[in-house]
# Entry
Amino acid sequence: MNMKKRLFTLALALVLALSLAACGGRSDAPADDSTPPQTEAPEVPETPEGETPTAPAPEAPEDQEPEVPAPGDGENTAPEGGEAQIDLTSFYNTLREENTWPELMDLADESMAELLESYYPGLSEIPTKQRGVYIAAISAAVGEIALVEVEDAGDVQAVKDIFQARIDYQVGDDSNPGGAWYPETIEGWKTKSHIVSSGNYVMLAVGDSAAAAVERFEGLFA
# Structure
């Protein structure tokens, strides 16, 4: 009987020993994986030797419009190294505002084409960018302004010749009375007529304010 108890005790001790050994070798704690995840670095284009790498410019938002420089102000504008651009109609209005002129009639209208040709023969045949001819509404008054911008600089002299022919006709000569007819009017055309030019621009000014008009015209290109 004692022998059976000893065997039973020995077997129980062996079972307990195996159970403890199995528990000691098992761990419920998660494995420690401290290695950080690997991320791919963005590709950087190679910089040629001797050059400094530059950061790319930030992209503008899609809804943002590009800035456009505002045009320059002023009556007369010119690209760098180019000829001034003159608005002859605006210039004519300035002359009328600054000085006293008789009532002038505009011959630019198509209905005045025949009258323009009779006063300034050949002028309508010259290619122009701008043209304005203003004559006194009363024949006894001394006052006239003609402004032309030709397309070809080679036509400047032709315009000046036409303007001079207008003066010569109004003044007349010893054998033919002038178109201005009245002695005082003829004298005004003889002594108060001016033809000036600058670049492709030509002006004829007649009357008491003609000298001031010439000064104003030349000031546009100073």
